[in-house]
Amino acid sequence: MSSVDFLAQEKIWFEKPRYDEAERRFYERMNGSSQNIQDVGANAILQDIARARENIQKSLAGNTGSCNNSAGDQGEIISRINSLELENQSLHKVVDNLRAALSKLECRVAVLEKRPASVTLAPAASVPYTNGNVVQQKASAPVKQAEEDDEDDIDLFGSDEDEEAEKLKEQRLKEYAEKKAKKPAIIAKSSILLDVKPWDDETDMAKLEECVRSVQADGLLWGTSKLVPVGYGIKKLQIACVVEDDKVGTDLLEEEITKFEDYVQSVDVAAFNKI
After folding, report:
1. pLDDT digits (tens, 9 = 90+) for 106-134
2. Residues whose CB falls within 8 Å of the CB of residue 115, separated by 6 or more in sequence, listed in order
3. Which helix (H) or strand (E) holds 209?
4. Which of 101, 120, 203, 206 is the most buried (most CB within 10 A)?
């Protein structure tokens, strides 16, 4: 078969416009579908952006609310802390007052315990036997009991024994008074701690102590002493003494010690305790 015959039988070249139209429509359809796909993708992106913005706004609103709540909680905590501090201060004051009252009570109890008993037993009277041995006899009853015994012995109807009873009563009263007079009296004493201050740091403290101890009086007994720093090189003399309350007082001690004007500036009572 010749080439002319082959071309004569081939129909594709004669239908080329149809193929071109089909190809044009194919490409138009492809372009249209890609545009729709792009539009769909753009809409999805916009929706995601809108959802993201909405989530951001919600999160910001939630953070603002939580901040307000946390600020309120913080203010409440601060107010509670302030109230607890005030309550703690008041409790400290109460505890300090209780401690001061307790210390006063302890001092008073110590003073009361050191005081001697107001009533003491009368000394036993010694009664000699005929062989020279001495034994102890119980003290006689009080005057009131003696008077009652005498009244029991006295005849109330005016017998001859009235005068003897009166004499016996007077004799017993006289014996009781003599025993009471012989009884040693209780001497009240006190322990005093004095602070003797010099004029300056150049004062001779040994001479000052010698002057203080030179003060002598009936019922005065000096005790130990020591030098206590006051400040700026100055030291004060702290000296203890025991005095009889009826004979020596703090006013007398201060007056006698301050007479040494060259050495002594002032005298203070640091402690005073009953013995």
Report:
1. 888 888 887 654 444 444 444 444 344 44
2. 274
3. helix 205-213
4. 203
